[in-house]
Amino acid sequence: MATQRKTSGEEQHPRLHIRGLIPLDLCKEMEFIHRSCATVGYRPHVFSTTLAHLVATNSPHLLLPFLPLRERLRETVEEFFGCEYELFVEFTGLISWCKGANIGWHSDNNRPYLKQRDFAAVCYLNSYDKDFKGGIFHFQEGEPASVVPMAGDALIYTADDRNVHSVDEVMDGERLTLTLWFTRDSSYDEDAKLVALLSQISLDSQNNTYVPFPASNHMYWYSPDPASQYGVNGFDVRWARLHILGYSLYSDHDRIQNSRSNLSSDPLDLLNQPMRLGRDGKAFEMKFHNNLHALQVVLFYCWKVSDLKSSKGIEEDVQTTLQQSSQEEVSVDLKTVLHFDSQLVEAFFCEDCFAFEWNDFSIAIAAWEEYVHRLRKELMSRIPQWRLGNQLC
Ligand SMILES: O=C(O)CCC(=O)C(=O)O
Ligand SMILES: [Fe+2]
Fold first, then answer.
1. Mean pLDDT throughout 34-52?
2. 298: pLDDT strictly greater than 50
3. Where does the Fe2OG dioxygenase domain start and stop, copy by copy (predicted)?
């Protein structure tokens, strides 16, 4: 980008609205990552996925799609604001807002623990009106006064009180952004923290180590009333996303009996154990390692469904591995055991409808494994360089 001479309006309210910065397929990939990995967020009706969380849940390879965009945003911010010092990414996160989420007038460095934030970049990954209603961004003063979120666009602004802003309440759907903050204070450098975390994990691709490991159950538990007890009056967001897409989770009867007889065990741990995935009273033959594993494959299928259909070729070549719920063991729908609030889930998330086919789903499983192996290999080749330089690029 050519260095721009700023008008006095821009100097008073330094900000830039960039159209079409993020390729739409990258927006979709990030939506897949968020929907399959997010935990309950820091405020009501909000879900978030941080890069550190991806590393901690054995999905460090999912960092890779973020890196070129993260670097591009850093350079754009440096150039537009004319930074004559090194700028570090302080935080990168996917953040989704469901019905009811909003934020009043604020600046992004308005708390003592946020003072290190110098600039913000908000990337819109889905679109107003098409994917959600409400959720329009406003600046209190200066131009543009409002920004209507559209997939692929980004908004950069200083984190201080020259850019006080708010976001209208989301009225329907799920509004998704990739939000970054930048700092000149190297002690808040997110890269250094991530490189340290990556140094601790095993990148051995054997023994199914590519399967996601869940974080603590508490991190996935959503309750509309923050005072309400964990496990009561709410839902597990991992289960909720599968439920809304029409899937059920089946666990062995014996496993459920064991969980019940062990009074100290958390019933939600059943989600962290092997399970089958079902639809319309049928169950898929393959067992998933845990609920997150099933969720990642399902959402990969949702993301890639049109490519899978077009590359499918002759129908007979595709093995259908569908069977009635297994004969040798009794499978129980976890919904009847874990008592999630389905009505609440339906008020939160909306269903993305497409015609489901078991044939396509079985192709998606193989395609998901290929995707993960490819990213995992690339990650392994990059880590030595990162360790030396402490930067993820
Ligand atoms: O999502 C947006 O448009 C802005 C969100 C925001 O203001 C914030 O997270 O501080
Ligand atoms: Fe903000």
1. 95
2. yes
3. 76-184
Q: Which atom of ligand 1 is nearest to the CA of 147?
A: 3
Residue the block writes with tokens 């930074």: 83
What are the chain's domains?
8-201 (2.60.120.620), 217-306+319-380 (no CATH)
**Nearest-angstrom CA–CA distance, 62 and 77:** 24
Rounded to whole angstroms, how far apart are CA atoms 71 and 393?
7
- Say if CB 141 and CB 166 are below 8 A apart: no
pTM of the model: 0.93
Does residue 183 come out as left (phi exceeding 0), alpha (psi in the -120 to 50 range) or beta? beta
Residue 90's pLDDT is what?
A: 98
- What is the C-alpha separation between 382 and 29, in angstroms, rounded? 21
Chain Cα centroid distance, residue 342: 21
Q: Please compute, for residue 94, the number of CA atoms within 13 A of its CA located in the half-sphere on the CB side.
A: 28
pLDDT at 208 exceeding the cut of 70: no
From atom 5 of ligand 1, which residue's Cα is the shortest distance away? 167
Judged by average pLDDT, the poorest of 210-214, 295-299, 307-311, 376-380 is 307-311
Is the CB–ligand 1 distance for residue 107 below 6 Å? no
Residue 247 neighbours by CB under 8 Å, 6+ apart: 277, 278, 279, 294, 298
Q: Which residue has the tokens 């393959």?
A: 286
In this prediction, residue 329 has a pLDDT band, given cuts at 50, 70 and 90, of low
The answer to whether the CB of 175 is under 6 A from ligand 1 is no
Please give the average per-residue pLDDT across 144-164, as a whole number.
Answer: 98
With a 6 A CB cut-off, is 122 part of the ligand 1 pocket?
yes
Going along the chain, which residue ranges are E strands?
15-18, 39-40, 46-50, 88-98, 103-106, 119-124, 132-134, 137-139, 146-147, 154-158, 165-167, 170-183, 221-222, 235-236, 248-252, 276-279, 282-284, 322-323, 331-333
User: For residue 21, what are the CA distances in angstroms to 69, 117, 154, 377, 387?
Assistant: 9, 23, 7, 28, 29
Q: Is 165 in the pocket of ligand 1 (CB under 6 A)?
A: yes
DSSP 8-state code for residue 327? S
Ligand located closest to 167 CA:
1
**Distance separating alpha carbons of residues 314 and 311, to the nearest angstrom:** 9
